[in-house]
Amino acid sequence: MTEAEPNFKDPRWSLMGVTALVTGGTKGIGYTIEEELAAFGAAVHICSRNQTEINDRVREWESKGFKVSGSVCDPTSKAQREELIETVSSVFHGKLNSQHPR
User: Fold this and answer.
1) Residue 1: band (very low, low, confident or very high) from pLDDT cuts 50, 70, 90
2) What CATH code is carried by the domain that includes residue 74?
3) What's the N-to-C CA distance of the chain in angstroms?
4) Residue 51 falls within a domain, yes or no?
5) Number of structural domains the chain divides into
6) pLDDT digit string (tens) for 65-101?
7) Would you say 45 and 70 are in contact if contact means Cβ atoms under 8 Å apart?
8) What SUPFAM superfamilies does this protein map onto (predicted)?
9) Distance of CA 91 to the CA centre of its chain
10) ∠ CA 4-57-89 to the nearest 5 degrees?
11) Is 64 buried (19+), middle (13-18) or exposed (0-12) by CB count in 10 A?
C-alpha cells in the first residue's frame, strides 16, 4: 500500500517539528483543531474516551499523510491523565509544544 503524500497548507505557516496534544480530538472543535494543526505539519496526539472513534480518526488522517496518533483517556480521571502524559511523552520523545483542551 502506498503512503499518501502529505498535502500541507501554506508553508509560510509551517508547524513541521511541532508536537501537539488535542483532548477530545475525534469530533467537534477538537477534530477541527487536530486537522488544522496536522495540515500545517504538526505531529498530533489525540485522546478521547472512545477507542473506535480514535482508530477511525487516525486512519482518516493518516490517509491524508498527517502524522497523528491517539489513545483513550477520560480527562476527568487523574490516573488516566497521568497515563496520557506518559504516553504522549513516549510518542513525542519528551517534547510537547502545545496542548489543546476540548
Assistant:
1) very low
2) 3.40.50.720
3) 34
4) yes
5) 1
6) 999 999 999 989 999 999 999 999 999 999 999 887 6
7) yes
8) NAD(P)-binding Rossmann-fold domains (SSF51735)
9) 11
10) 90
11) middle
Q: Which three cell numbers stand for residue 33?
A: 483543531
89, part of any domain: yes
Does the residue 11 lie in any domain?
Answer: no
Q: In this structure, are residues 42 and 102 in contact, taking their beta carbons and an 8 Å threshold? A: no
Phi, psi (deg, nearest 5) at residue 94: 85, 0
Locate 19 and state its grid cell: 508536537
Domain that holds residue 53: 19-100
Q: Which residue is associated with the grid cell 469530533?
A: 27
Distance CA 61, CA 82 (A): 26
Given 3-state DSSP classes, what are the helix, strand and coil percentages for the chain, each rounded to the nearest 5? Answer: 40, 20, 40
